[in-house]
Amino acid sequence: MNGMPSAPESPPPSRSRAVYIVDGARTPFLKVRGRPGPFTPVDLAVQCGRPLLLRQDIPVQAFDQVILGCVNVLPTEMNPARIAALRLGMGVRTPAFTVQINCGSGMQSIDTAFRSIRAGVWDLVLAGGSEALSHAPVLLRPEAVKWFADLRQGSSLLKRLRTLARWRSGFLKPVVGLKQGLTDPVADLNMGQTAEILAHLFDIGREEADRYALSSHQRLARAQTEGWLADEVEPAFAADGRIYTLDDGVRPDTTLDALGKLTPVFERPFGKVTAGNSSQVTDGASWLILASEQAVSKYQLTPKAVIIDSAWAALEPQIMGLGPVLSVTTLLKRQNGKLDDIDLWEINEAFAAQILACLAAWENPDFCREVLGLDQPPGRLDRERLNIDGGAVSLGHPVGASGNRIVLHLVNALRRKGLKYGIASECIGGGQSGAMLIEAV
Fold first, then answer.
1. Annotation marks residue 70 as catalytic
2. Is 173 a residue whose pLDDT tops 90?
């Protein structure tokens, strides 16, 4: 690849150090079905973290840091990174902290480790992401909270009786925390509405979005049937004895006709975004072990890949889905690379229309000139290289974990196919994006 460096064999102290991905694992991604699932964020992190650590001959106390991305942190699991580290037996002296950048949290954990190892601060880091969206809180309405506060603070029996008289049955109608969390407070749009904007701007048709969704399900179903995810997905064991082994949101028998019958969710009746061509609300976790050259040598590790570079970008929240176009372009500019130089791509499928808009943006001369600062479009991203085993439309989007999962799967897919370079990227609610360039070794 033009100008893209490989990891140095043994970097001198004055240069940036190579950062290796040694191994990784994730849980099955479990679709939310209207009630709290069997695992909390920490439960999920432990379920896939334990087998990952057991299969590596590394003393758990050797890790310099544990970093976990998590957005929906439960009140009973504040700083889930630390709780997970302790439950994994990593020792009381191993520091751990949680990061949150919405959909990019799982990649942010990798990036924080990558930059610190490269700078010589750390040598060995466990970096992951975990999310249990089924455990998102159900909240009291503000007026109900005020009523309860007034009742509690009533200084006399008469004042309390007056407060009781103000009771309204509507106070018991809950506010779904997840719905609030998926609405941008600046743009005042939910994430689905931002995808509708992109569909309008880039003329993405309903059938085109449904065809993409169908392909995502077909690709994931094939990957499961062929056993291509076996090295990646660890079984999760629930307290009731049930064992979860596969991503359970995939619909291998769905058809274009069935998808076409679904009604738009966010912009009725003419919207393009439906439940069938959107990412699924899901629980799941993922971890990666990152190591310096020194740690690889000391513990005789066999790395799977090296992280070459990463980039982050920001844009208007109402078009947040275009974020990957900006962060990836920044990354390729810095590495003097082109779209065609990349063997495989993992771009998180927030919405089918959003992914298709990103692909269209790279081919749009006006967008490339005015937004990306390019004299001409960089060309077409080959769909056969993109999300080759499906993505969030078919397997789900546990927000804090997805950025970690796409890097893990990218590494495994590159090695399975004997390819070299890959880029993982995701759009981030609030108008941001991250991208990471990986080289298989």
1. no
2. no
